[in-house]
C-alpha cells in the first residue's frame, strides 16, 4: 500500500490552504498513492483565536472539496481535521473519503489538547472545542484502518480497542509542537505501533514561524515491529511511502501479543 504524507504549511488564508491541499493530493496520487493523509486543522491556523471564524458545518466548502480531491484522484483521503460547527458547538473533526469521494468515516478528537508545560507550550483546546466521544475503524481493500487525532495518540487504551476492532493500521492527523514534538512524537508513534503490532501513520503541518503555534512537522510512518519506516523534517513536503502490510500478520504470528492478552484477575 502506498501512503501519501502531505505535510502542508498551514497559513491564515483558508483558500490558499485548500488549493495547496488540492495540489499536494494530486501530486501524491500521480506518484501512486492509494491513501493520502492531511494534517490536523489543515484549513486554519492551529490557534483558538481562529477556530470559530474558520469553522464550517458538515458538508460545507472544505468537506465538498475533500470529497472531490478523493474522487478526482481516485484515492482514499484522510482529510486531516477542520473546525466543525455542530448545533452551536465546535469540534475538531476529520473526515475520510473513499476513491469515489464518498465519506466512509468521521472522527471528532476525543482528548482535547489542554496542557501547560513550564517553559514550553501552553494550549487549552477545550476553550473552544468540545470533545468527541468515540473511536472507530473503516474498511478498505487493504484491511481495516483506525483513526484518532493528535493528542488522542497519548491514550494507549484507545489504540488497543481499535486493534481489537480489527485495525491493521491507524492514521493520525496531528500537530505536535516544538516542546513535545522532539521529546515524544517518534516515541509515541513507535510505541502505539509496537503495542498493537500495526502500522501507525502520523501527519503534521510543516513549521510556520509566522503563526503563533510552531508545529513540529516530522510526519511519520512506524511499523508493527516498532521501527520508523519514514519520517519527514520540518518543511513543507509531500511524500509517498510504500508499506508492506503483510508484515502485520507476519509479526503477529511470530510474536503473538494481539489476542493473547490475559485479564488481570487481581
Ligand atoms: N494538537 C495536539 O493535540 C497536540 C498534541 C501534542 O503536541 C502532544 O504533545 O500530545
From TrEMBL:
Alphabetically list the UniProt keywords.
Hydrolase
- InterPro entries in the record, alphabetically? C-N_Hydrolase, C-N_Hydrolase_sf, Nit1/2_C-N_Hydrolase
CN hydrolase domain spans which residues?
Answer: 1-245
Q: Which Pfam families match?
A: CN_hydrolase (PF00795)
Q: Does the keyword Nucleotide-binding apply?
A: no
The family database entries (SUPFAM superfamilies) matched by this protein are listed as: Carbon-nitrogen hydrolase (SSF56317)
Gene3D superfamilies, per the entry: Carbon-nitrogen hydrolase
Alphabetical list of PANTHER family matching this protein: NITRILASE-RELATED (PTHR23088), OMEGA-AMIDASE NIT2 (PTHR23088:SF30)
Can you name this protein? Amidohydrolase
Organism of derivation: Youngiibacter multivorans
